[in-house]
Amino acid sequence: MAEPDTAGILTTLPPEAIRAAHYLVALCRESQPTTLLDLPVELLWLIERQLPDKDVYSLCLTNRYLYHVLNESLCRRGMVNLRALQLSFQRNQKQAFAKAVAALSPLPRAISLDNHTPPLTPLVNNSNVNLIELMTFKGGLLGQQLAHIIEFILRIWRRREESTGAYKWQSLQNCLKWGLSPNYVFEDGMSLMAQAIVKSTMNPYKQYREVEILLALGADTGCLASLPGNDSMLHLACLHHQTKIVQLLLDKGADPNLRDAQNRTPVHRLFDTHENKWREPDNLLDILLADPNVRIDERDGNGRTPLSLGCLAAGRSVNLLTAALKFAKKVVYLPDRVDINSQDNEGKAPLCHAISVREYDMIRLFIAQHGLDPNLGPADEFPLIVAVDFDKLPSLELLLDSKQLDLNQQNSEGETAVLKAIHIGNREAVKLLARAGADPDIKSCEGATARQAALDAGIRVRWRIRPN
């Protein structure tokens, strides 16, 4: 930035100051000053006394040297106005406070008066809090004071359920009114809306109102950078089971198919364990499924669809079992939207997961579907051999009701389910499979057959081979 010209500065001074200035300039003619910075310190002090606060602050911003030379004067000028600001604020005197704000408005942020400017925060109360609005959208020192108040409130807001009584002024609404961006992000990456949703389990109605206010002010519903896990606001609302917030976000245009860091959509997050999830009958699933844009058969990073995750979640708690069954009963009848045979990265279909967690109602639901392939699964973990291997007789009985079941499917070692049952001593499974028509003469990779293995094990079986 170009330095102010000496002649231009001098012409703005009163006559007596100009005469004194010319006298001082004459003392340094030999140095031939060409800018204000070339003038003696004494002359700079003289010029400073003739200029208003705003001009002095502006000049000091142009050069650090001027700031150091005039620092004492800057403190002297600012102290009077700062004292007036604090006293008028403490006494709730609106006119005096407004005058002090006007006087301090030119003071730039770059002018460091921290030792002389204690923050206003300790003086704020329910009576004078409305005066802070006079400081909004001010830069410099006033902006620093306001930022200090807002930061203090946000720290309180994050850890406290609600500010009441004498601390009612410590509200998010006040911070937003004073110019805080609705998309403000804390140092740990959490946005205001994300924090409001996380807190919603403590006071659902209050946090719903805060989310509503943030959305009205333009908060981004689809921000994926707000958390380390790249959760969108809809992900969080589903995770914390906030039905009203989910509906509000969808009404405001939130994308129900956004992915987080693990490639999960909000529908996937319905089946994450959370202490408040599914604690009472709800319509959260109905809300998501009713959205015309939602895709309910997307794969996450492990290749699992929401239906597969629901099957796995069903084995973790009774509440999640209820939710998973509710979801499954809705989507299995939507073959155009959901593939009940979808296999994850390990090759496991939803039926495999239901058998592994012993959820018989879920298995029964799948078996009843005409489009189900009951034979899909990894080479060594297809449904029939899993049911035998883990001694899940109810699962085996349900599987045997399927006409599409391949009783003679072999694993990577060439074992059929009945041969596997003989090897592990599961006699009941051997008898069930024999009555169902399993072929006892199929050889494994080692040449063993179920017929011979049963004889060797002393298991008496009446084989009833199912015709091809």
TrEMBL record:
Protein name: F-box domain-containing protein
SMART domains in the cross-refs: ANK
Domain F-box: 33-79
Gene3D superfamilies, alphabetized: Ankyrin repeat-containing domain
Upper classification of the organism: Eukaryota, Fungi, Dikarya, Ascomycota, Pezizomycotina
Keyword annotations from UniProtKB, A to Z: ANK repeat, Repeat
Organism: Penicillium bovifimosum
ANK repeats: 229-261, 413-445
Coiled-coil segments: none
PANTHER family: ANKYRIN REPEAT AND PROTEIN KINASE DOMAIN-CONTAINING PROTEIN, ANKYRIN REPEAT-CONTAINING PROTEIN-RELATED
